[in-house]
Amino acid sequence: MWVRIFFWKEVDVVKKILAIHTGGTISMSQNAQGDVVPNAKNPIAQEATILAGRVQLVTDEMFNLPSPHVTPVEMLKIQQRILRAEADGIDGVVITHGTDTLEETAYFLDLTLPNTIPVVVTGAMRSSNEIGSDGMYNFQSAIEVAADDASQGNGVMVVMNDEIHSARYVTKTHTTNVATFRTPTFGPIGIVAKDHAVYFQQLIRQATCQIDQVIDHVYLIKAYAGMDGSLFDFLDNDTTAGVVIEGLGAGNLPPRTLPAVQRLLDRQIPLVLVSRCYNGVAEDIYDYDGGGIQLRKMGLMLCQGLNGQKARIKLLVGLSAGLTGDDLKDFLRTAVS
Ligand code: ASP
């Protein structure tokens, strides 16, 4: 870990920002064959001196992982590192992360941090030496947002491509485009202007959840036309801790799944229902075989506003905190309670 101090313009207060690097394309480079590969030394961390920031930057190269290698265990380590930094007087945190699972780490932190200092997650779609590389730019934007007083109390944010998104709703929507991060239904909460954040939406407060361990065996299943119970039957065992189901439309399932779904419920395995739709929220609207009303009556917990991967993180966090029964149901019900 090392510290550098940059002074920019006439500013009143020099903010102390912790940059946690975890890997991902933002820290990778293209080789002679054109393949994107990890680096032994993170170029973003090494070249941070080019940042014209009004900040004191503290750097921690915590991991060097492609984000498909990131698990809730690393997410918890990042959360614990941020809690330690808060106790040490850090004013804000920026995390660089691979974009593939960035939304899951960001939402995990949103659910488990006390929301006392700005925490911003960023990444890149083009590696560090590619033409049009967006890594250093996004890193600088993220630092500006983390250092901005207006960012207080906004929960964990994702800053990419000049936009500020809430970690609760943002999702990766494109495999390669630099404008990949979008917030369906609600839109971004702000934009990155020349050197500061401009917000035009305020988040509703959410309950956070303190955890000191993460459980395993929480699964995510997507429904499809003609689906039967086979995938659910694979999870009908003693190790399954919980399952999120991305249902059809407003939150419905093909009737052939129902006997297997019931077997999981009989085992007291928590089942959470979200929609596989890109926009909207899951609701119990339909009263037919497999419709949302029947699923709710069977005991599935509807979770509104979250996509499948985020609902899985929320279920995992709730179970890791030891929540059960109505407490777990209340925690999962909406993205804001
Ligand atoms: N596959 C890369 C990762 O998530 C993509 C990225 O970083 O944008 O690590």
TrEMBL record:
What keywords does the record list, in alphabetical order?
A: Hydrolase
Q: Which residues form the active site?
A: 99
- Give the matching Pfam families: Asparaginase, Asparaginase_C
Which residues does the UniProt record annotate as the domain L-asparaginase N-terminal?
Answer: 16-203
Supply the InterPro entries for this chain. AsnASE_II (IPR004550), Asp/glu_Ase-like_sf (IPR036152), Asparaginase/glutaminase-like (IPR006034), Asparaginase/glutaminase_AS2 (IPR027475), Asparaginase_C (IPR040919), L-asparaginase_C (IPR027473), L-asparaginase_N (IPR027474), L-asparaginase_N_sf (IPR037152)
Residue ranges of the Asparaginase/glutaminase C-terminal domain? 217-330
**PANTHER family cross-referenced by the UniProt entry:** 60 KDA LYSOPHOSPHOLIPASE, L-ASPARAGINASE
What protein family is recorded? Belongs to the asparaginase 1 family.
Would you tell me the protein name for this molecule?
Asparaginase
The root-end lineage is: Bacteria, Bacillati, Bacillota, Bacilli, Lactobacillales
